[in-house]
User: Fold these one by one.
Assistant:
Number 1:
Amino acid sequence: MQYRSSTPEFDRTIEGFHTGEHLVNARRQADARKLDDVLIVDVDCHHYETDNFAEIIEYIEDPVIKQGAVNTFAYKGSAAILMDQPGYQDIGGRVSRYLERKHEKIPKTANPREVEQTLRWMNALSVDYACLFPTPMLFMGLHPQAEVEVAMARAYNRWLTDNVLPSNPRLRSMLYLPFNDPEATYQMVKEYGHKPGVIGFMVVSTRYKPVYDNAFMKTYALLEELGLPLSFHASYNWNDQLVSMTNRFITAHAVGFTFFNAVHCANWIVNGLPERFPKLKVIWIESGLAWIPWLMQRLDNDYRMRTSEAPALKKLPSEYMRDMFYTTQPMEMVNNHEALELTFKMINADTQLLYSSDYPHWDMDLPSTIWDLPFLSEKSKRNILGLNAKRIFNLDVSDRFPDAKGKSDGMVDTFKQQVTPA
Amino acid sequence: MTEIFVARSADLPEGARNTVEYEGRQIGVVRAKDKLHAFLNICPHQGGPVCDGLLIHRVEEIIAPDKTYQGMRFSETDLHIVCPWHGWEFNIETGKCAGDGKHGLKRFKTVERDGAVYVVV
Ligand code: FES
């Protein structure tokens, strides 16, 4: 692959990308920390459904939408039916795997290429089980035609549960919900809630549909009855009226990926949904952690003055938030461990926090981001990396941990490497 | 002090790079701005293979005398090497992280002699 630099002498050609080689340092980290002996469940990672798009659109049930999509796809690619928006997550080619992974050579098998590609990075990171999500589809909640979101969600979920999830027990998913259509959302849970490999359902939070709408209550009730978590996965909308004031992706990302989750979470609590569905497990994904103490403090402060506006609550908003679950990435690891430690305490990280890598996206976090935190006990690290997920998803991990696995040698502790001052 | 052979000088022109292994560690050697630069191939962020990354000049803002923003351009002097995992950028000459000078790459000395390049460990 060719990468253009600032001047031609630094233009670069990279051939023969292999995910395992790209992540060889991650494998060394895992060896140094003996992470193969630790259960690691990655609750948020991605593949690119567009790699198999021609196949997926054949799964569209609506004959008219399918006929149009197939013909438009022939000249327009996946934009035939998916939403796109401005963005350059690869930072102008600086994060090279965006382009390279697309052309990675994967031996042809009966399985879609993402099965082998996903296993390559899972093995490098020492991830035992991964909850796989799509990528370009994460903007579908912004599609002006709700029926197109429904058609794509149904096609994708059927394709995934037919072809990807059955191929390897290490691959799981919380299936995409077409949340702009409450009835289709309910049907999806009803139809797919019992499928092998399905460990819950996911709403992309970037949309304009409030979670307290009465039309969703039967879906929440069904999820609660099935014991399946409901997750809200962050994304961004650069065309959102507020976010459109930002002029760089860094700003659209820093605020955009927290914004929608913060609004949905506040609505969830103020409308007393935790009281209506006390056993429903709710997970907030990919907004990092810094927004949680912010929202807890804002809501608690207001609630004590405006209790009459949230009459369903029987305790402080922050206490409901402490009953919810959060994924780790992108964990704000700035130079202040005290802030991070306090955040962990405020959210009861020991029981509520779930490791996620978000691989292969640009701000992915390795398991070492948790394993190397100086303020955590080994028990807490194990909870966050895998045991909390095992508990809330009710995972059977006996295929990976029948008993203690072999040990491996260490190499370099990257977080303790000596830094040479300039 | 051990000298490890990296490449023949002719095989390491401007903008080229090579990686050598020493005691299980990788060291990347790059020729840029007519000098050799050698770094441990482990990024101080999350341990990525920083020496495999793009060489690219620092991006700077153009601000007019009246303080108005006039666009962006590439620096003509400051060259960065970018870690391919997440995009941390490091000044190729100092090894310092462009976004947070408290972090930097571990550097090694290099020697060029009789048409060959060596890294000193
Ligand atoms: S590991 Fe180098 S930028 Fe993250």
Note: Residues 404-422 of chain A have pLDDT under 50 and may be disordered.
Number 2:
Amino acid sequence: MKRSELIFQSIALITLAVAFILFWNFSKGVSFVENGTLFDATVTDSYSVLQENLNRMIPILLGAILFSVAIAFYLEEYLARTSWKYQIIARQIAILASIPSLLYGILGTYFFVFKTEFGSFFTHALTFVLLVLPITIQSTQRAIRGVDISVREAAYALGAKRRHVIVHHVFPHAFSTIMAGIFIAISRTLAISALIIVVYVWTEHTPQSGDPFHIPGSVIVLLLLSLLSSVLSSFLEAKTNWS
Amino acid sequence: MKTKIQVSDLKVHYGNIQALNGISFDVYENEILGIIGPAQSGKTTLLKVINRTLEFAQGTTVEGSVQLDGVDIYSIRDVHGLRRRIGMVLPLPVGLPLSIYDNVAFAPRTAGMRKKAELDEIVERCLQQAALWDEVKDRLDSLGTKLSGGQQQRLTIARALSHQPEILCLDEFSIAVDPITTMRIEDVLKTLKDEMTILLVTNLVQQAKRLANRTAFMLNGDLIEIDDTDVIFSDNPASQSTFDYITGNFG
Ligand SMILES: Nc1ncnc2c1ncn2[C@@H]1O[C@H](COP(=O)(O)OP(=O)(O)OP(=O)(O)O)[C@@H](O)[C@H]1O
Ligand SMILES: [Mg+2]
């Protein structure tokens, strides 16, 4: 095995392990907060509610990711680049994608932290979905377009129908690049979750320790995970270039 | 002699670039037709029109007609069925990300074949025909892309035979294959001729001389001449440029 491959695989493993631990802790909700291992004992009840709401984003995000991959395949494989449907959808996505993620962060903190009466679960979810959707759709589109035309031609030359070509040829060839895009989206989501928690803690809650700029342990973990995700993403991107 | 393919006044444009300038010729059933000519002469384009994979390039237009058994290929509704009647081998092996077995079984499966015994039989026969069976029979489950370049090319030949085509198109198949394997595949082609019609695009004029019943010479999108291989390779083919190309005094 190449050394680069080894590094790549260990990073993937570490990320998975940490994500699993975090997910497991999150799913246990309150005990995670009380244990004070990642969070401090200074947290309040409303803090755990925020935490809960962020945890509930996980299935929604996974759904959004699957949805965006499907949308991208629909756009690239089933619509002509010149059709009005393609044009309209692609333009909307381009607009969404061009919004800096900082704005999503501000939007997120606004809904999650300051507008709690307006900050229904729906608006929370919408913020994250709008963040993830354009990133993964566009990266998946790029991945699909990156599959060499000869692969498609060779598969169609065998008499394959479109669905066979997509499932057995385009998807496997595009897989690493699609995953790279998904990890970028995950990385940004984690970073923004971290931002929301920090802003929350700084505004809503005066820590008893007297440190006004206290940073909860979970934020550090989220940021580390975010960093790992983006590293993983660039490894995946590089992997497609080797093969 | 029965006409298998009839090409009439075929013109192809890629956007503004004209790749075929209105060529006409017939291909007879169970012959090997060699197609030779320098780079950019339109040989690959011609093959892509015949199996209708030219449609995947952007902005192409096709005028004129190509008839297969007397039926215009552009009037055929079931394009997948049409493509299964034609086996295509490209210059460089295109790695399909599947096991060796699945590569060969792919086309029969997409055509609806499910029986393991039948698939096994096809996989073995096609790999035998492509002179690859002995090298891979013990590792049919390993990835096709892990084979050497020459082996991958023979895998694409096996794949092209897997849907039992009536016509086999080979586009410079020996570019990535060593000379000994090339000879083995050439022997296979000689026997396959009894079952199918073969269009052999080749940059090795000697390969056409060895295998083809008739040979066509193409140049810059024109069909300069098509005749019995003996005539094309004789001292006086109809066109001086054919003679120059074959004797290597070209350009
Ligand atoms: N996808 C494409 N887009 C634009 N022009 C193309 C495309 N494919 C081929 N052409 C052009 O069409 C002409 C014929 O090309 P073609 O590939 O058919 O030639 P060829 O005889 O197969 O050449 P070679 O021996 O190099 O394979 C060339 O001028 C080429 O530049
Ligand atoms: Mg060519």
Note: The CA atoms of residues 155 and 165 of chain A lie 6 Å apart.
